[in-house]
Amino acid sequence: MINKKAILKMTTGATAAAMMAMPISANADAHMKPGSGTTIDMARASWDTGWWQAEVYSQLLQELGYDVSRITTLDNPPFYQSVAQGDVDLWVNGWFPLHNSYEDAFSQGAEKIGYVAKGGALQGYLIDKKTAEEHDINYVEDLTKDDIQKLFDANGDGKADLVACPPGWGCETVITHHFEAYGWDDDFNAIKAGYSASMADALGRYENGQPIFFYTWTPNWTVGELPPGEDVVWLQMKETKLPEDQADLADATTVEGLEGCRGEQPCDLGWPANDIRPVANSDFLENNPAAAELLKQVSIPIGDIFDQNAQMNDGADSPEDLKQQASTWIEDNRDQVDKWLKAAREAAQM
């Protein structure tokens, strides 16, 4: 008859002996690098103002021992589909409520976790300050007047040219909704080419004394290059009309004391403020408690993102620049970073 208790005792004893025989340095390394041996398939958004944040998180994950050998650039639709299916593990470029249209992913294997930046991501429409003051333009609706449209018509089609967002971006979906909801098709021409190139063209027109009309978000290099209140102004919306997936946020589109806003405060931008959040595959989070805890812990001040975006716009935008900027930020914030890493390592021991 097999003595199960004896076998269990022998097995337990052997395991204990093996653990006793393991070098102390190996135990220490396993604690410091709980992600050792695990490769993370990380993505980043197609807008380059989010690439630095992705690099910061990548380097922190590597400090935990994870292999993050490459980061794949994806538009919103393929990312949310891929992360739900487990083909991609995570990114840190989720914008909510802007990305609410991808909520199906969160019932199919993905989840939001932690905050890169909470509540500080603004969006809206802007024009140059000179034209706003000369023609008393306070609202986007003011630009639908025929004589005002002509001021912003760079291609001669009779419509005001608006630098919008490329297809696949969450803001492109909302802007398309605005065109339908407000009936802007006869008034505005939405430029949906590459955003950075389109904004560079608008900046060139501005420097030549021509009016400009564009959408932007914060943090973004555009508001560093064209500071609201100095070079450009935020325009308000007389009526808020959001897509169905954001309809419950119609009362959350005002910002009190917004610098550079035309008209009376609070400033109604017509867009709710966003949280920038990591999004990860649920199975990945369950199997990697250290990574999950790190995603919960880390946050980056909006001001620091502005500063990096300004460096990038000044030409420091190569992959090597991004890596250096991320490692410099990590070392400049080493005390806080070490607390985040400590919490992640402890989560792996539970």
From TrEMBL:
<dbReference type="Pfam" id="PF04069">
    <property type="entry name" value="OpuAC"/>
</dbReference>
<keyword id="KW-0732">Signal</keyword>
<protein>
    <submittedName>
        <fullName>Glycine betaine/L-proline ABC transporter substrate-binding protein ProX</fullName>
    </submittedName>
</protein>
<feature type="domain" description="ABC-type glycine betaine transport system substrate-binding">
    <location>
        <begin position="39"/>
        <end position="331"/>
    </location>
</feature>
<dbReference type="InterPro" id="IPR007210">
    <property type="entry name" value="ABC_Gly_betaine_transp_sub-bd"/>
</dbReference>
<dbReference type="GO" id="GO:0022857">
    <property type="term" value="F:transmembrane transporter activity"/>
</dbReference>
<dbReference type="GO" id="GO:0043190">
    <property type="term" value="C:ATP-binding cassette (ABC) transporter complex"/>
</dbReference>
<feature type="signal peptide">
    <location>
        <begin position="1"/>
        <end position="28"/>
    </location>
</feature>
